[in-house]
Amino acid sequence: MVREALLKVLEARPEEPVSFLASYFEKLVLSGPQGGAAGDRHGQQQRLVRALWYVRLAHHSHRTAFNNNVSMAYECLSARGRRKKPGVNGRIYSELLKKICQDGEAPEEVVSFLLRKIQCRDHEAVPFDVFRYGVLSCFVLLEFVAKADTLYNVLDDGSGVADKRVCQAVLDTLEDALGASDFSVPIHYLEAGSKLGPDYLALAMDKALLERKICSSMNREEFLKKATALFIAKVKPID
User: Fold this and answer.
1) Residue 152, exposed/middle/buried by CB under 10 A (0-12, 13-18, 19+)?
2) Does residue 145 contact residue 114 with C-beta atoms inside 8 Å?
3) How many domains does the chain have?
4) Mean pLDDT in runs of 10 for the chain (239 residues)?
5) Is residue 91 within 8 Å of residue 126, measured between CB atoms?
6) Is 130 within a domain?
7) Residue that finishes a domain, picked among 36, 53, 86
8) For residue 157, what are the contacts with CB-CB under 8 A and spacing of at least 6?
9) C-alpha–C-alpha distance, residues 231 and 129, integer Å
10) Which domain holds residue 41?
C-alpha cells in the first residue's frame, strides 16, 4: 500500500506531496471493503469519487502513468459487492464520463454529443479498452476546448468579439488539418500540427482579411461549438 502510494507521488509529482498522500489514503479507506460494502448506492458513489481521483492524477500525454491510473480506476469501479459479479457496467461508466466533463468549459451541447458517441447502455458490461477510450476522449475534448478558447482570445484581441472571416478561416484550417489526416498513423499527428502552426494560420487569416466581404462577428460560444464539432467528428463511436 505504501509502495503504491509512493509510486503515485512519483507519477503525479504534486506540489504538496504530504497533502497528496493524505488525500490518497483517504480515498483508499473510503473505497475499501468497509467504505463501499455490499454495492449499495453510497458505496458506489465513494468508488466513483476514487476512480475520478485516479484518472485525474496524470495527464494523458504521460501514457504509462495515465494508463496505470485508468486501470486502477477500472478495478476500483469493478468491485461491486459479494452478491454481484465484478465488472464495470454502462451506467457507472457513463457517470464517470459525465463527471470528467463537468470540470471543463466545454459547451453542454458538445459534451452531450460526445457522450452519445462513447457511452454504453446501462446494463452492458464495459471492457477495459472501451473504458480507457471513453475516459481519454473526455480528457482530450476538455484540452481541445481549452486550447480553442485560448485561440479565440487571440482572435478577439480582448474586445470580446472576433472578425467572423478570420474565425472561419481558422476553423477551415483546423478542419483541413483534421480531415486530411489518418490518425491511426502517428506521423500524421505531426502533419496535422504543422498545418496549425503560427505561420500557416497567419497566412489563412491574412487571406481572409483581404476578401472584400461585409465584416460581421463571431462570438466565443459559436466559435467553440464549431471548433469542438470538428474534433468530435473524428471520435469513433462505440459499437
Assistant:
1) buried
2) no
3) 2
4) 58 62 59 48 82 90 90 86 70 95 84 92 93 93 87 82 85 77 46 56 61 72 89 85
5) no
6) no
7) 86
8) none
9) 21
10) 1-86
